[in-house]
């Protein structure tokens, strides 16, 4: 059931990939140009699920200017995967999630947040395809994307490669544009490859131990909502 796709070439998009079925992922949406939004619309995207905390969702001076008309037909849903300034989580991860080793902690501490993400998917399923994003499109997106791939029935190697692909994508952005702050840096392949080997395995371990279906139902997603999510994630569901 190898339904994970490749890179999306929407203009301005950074680290944009097909995940499974009608679900896509990318870095922050503010990088898209007006042409990029048109291309995403033509790809069937009708809902954007923003996994960032509210304070992160802002335009930067280097971002392209995009008119409201370019977003016509798109619904943007805020669904953070964590609670900002959560002392216990920050003690584990630092200022933000940047390692799949902490995905189980995210799922343990914030089940209501992850259920809200998948409820947003369920609500969007009848409208068209969905693109999820965080800031870099790597770890918060990676956590949710792995859960989507689990629901879609993807094998371990595709789930691992989904994370590795996104990590390479944002690393390339750092090479060409520089990192956004001093907690990130460009890594050459000698350093990156063994790190991604380890982290890809950690993503698979996380999602296999989680049992995404059971986790979502246990924490409040209804069976009908789960069915809607499954229809969105299913192979061939892209519109």
Automatic annotation (TrEMBL):
One of its GO terms (molecular function) is phosphoprotein phosphatase activity. Pfam families: Y_phosphatase3 (PF13350). It comes from the Bacteria. Residues 112-147 form the Tyrosine specific protein phosphatases domain. This is Protein tyrosine phosphatase. It comes from Pseudarthrobacter enclensis.
């Amino acid at each position: 059931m190898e339904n994970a796709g490749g890179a999306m070439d929407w203009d301005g998009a950074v680290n944009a990939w097909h995940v499974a079925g009608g679900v896509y992922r990318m870095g922050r949406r503010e990088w898209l140009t007006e042409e990029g939004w048109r291309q995403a619309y033509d790809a069937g995207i009708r809902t954007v699920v923003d996994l960032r905390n509210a304070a992160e969702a802002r335009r930067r001076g280097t971002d392209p200017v995009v008119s409201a008309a370019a977003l016509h037909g798109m619904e943007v849903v805020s669904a953070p995967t964590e609670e900002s300034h959560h002392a216990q989580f920050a003690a584990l991860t630092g200022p933000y999630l940047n390692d799949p080793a902490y995905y189980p902690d995210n799922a343990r501490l914030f089940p209501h947040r992850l259920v809200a993400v998948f409820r947003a998917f369920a609500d969007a399923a009848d409208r068209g395809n969905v693109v999820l994003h965080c800031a870099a499109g790597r770890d918060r997106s990676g956590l949710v994307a792995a859960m989507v791939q689990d629901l879609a029935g993807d094998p371990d190697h595709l789930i691992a490669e989904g994370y590795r692909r996104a990590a390479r994508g944002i690393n390339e952005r750092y090479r060409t544009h520089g990192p956004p702050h001093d907690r990130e840096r460009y890594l050459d392949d000698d350093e990156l490859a063994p790190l991604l080997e380890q982290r890809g395995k950690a993503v698979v371990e996380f999602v296999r131990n989680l049992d995404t279906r059971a986790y979502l139902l246990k924490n409040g997603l209804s069976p009908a909502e789960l069915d809607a999510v499954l229809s969105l994630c299913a192979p061939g569901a892209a519109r």
